[in-house]
Amino acid sequence: MKIIIIKRQVLIQIAIILVLIAVTLLILHQTGTIALSVFFAPNKELPIYSVDVPDKRIAISFDASWGAEQTDQLLKVLKERNIKTTFFLVGIWIDKYPDKVKAIANEGHEIGNHSNTHPHMNKLSEQQIRDELDKVSQKIEALTGKKTTLFRPPFGEYNDKVVRTARAAGYEVIQWDVDSLDWKNYGVEDEVDRVLKKVRNGSIVLFHNDAEYTPQALPIILDKLIQDGYKIVPVSELIYPPPYYIDHTGRQFKSGGTDK
């Protein structure tokens, strides 16, 4: 029998490397920039996290599933800068704040589908997923006269079934590559720094409509982005129509080129 002896120093080096890998993965997960599943499941059905564009265009989005106190101020900030964005609305939020839905639409912002009850979609059957999508679509169309074509899964959770079912229903599935983490209420400075450090051409930025510090952070972020030459558009004006492909990081590319 051949006995292999590994020096103590080598074992220590291996242990350090493993710890560094674990810490890196934890940071990626906690910052929410790109879900870990994107990296470890390259054959997975992927939503759009960002878009490969030839110019300095980005999209800003707001998820609305709780509260509405900050919504009017957000709309005011956006109107003052003539910026149009995308609001992803949950059905139960729509039921509670129909006037806010109309206000968002009247200001020219795009409205996306964020499910009816904000469930963990991975646990639902295909029929249940379709029901979640259909109910919200009907509510939004009844209030605004417009159909929804974008879907953001609650909690950012999805699997192949969720993505395929949504696409079969006519939706583009949208995630984000820049997470403000505004719902954690870290403060204005943290929110501003977090977004501005990570934004790049083709980014999709995630905010929430009722986060405590977003009304104060948003003007600073927008003014800096504008100063840096970025054009902010609704999600549907950033993404490519078919044919396109999505790489393993969730970045969307136009098939045959990048001009749009």
TrEMBL record:
Residue span, NodB homology domain: 56-233
Record GO biological process: carbohydrate metabolic process
A Gene Ontology molecular function term of the record: hydrolase activity, acting on carbon-nitrogen (but not peptide) bonds
GO CC terms in record: membrane
InterPro entries, per the entry: Glyco_hydro/deAcase_b/a-brl, NODB_dom, PdaB-like, Polysacc_deacetylase_ArnD
NCBIfam families: spore_ybaN_pdaB
Entries under PANTHER family matching the protein: GLYCOSYL TRANSFERASE-RELATED, POLYSACCHARIDE DEACETYLASE PDAB-RELATED
Record protein name field: Polysaccharide deacetylase
Originating species: Mahella australiensis (strain DSM 15567 / CIP 107919 / 50-1 BON)
Taxonomic classification: Bacteria, Bacillati, Bacillota, Clostridia, Thermoanaerobacterales
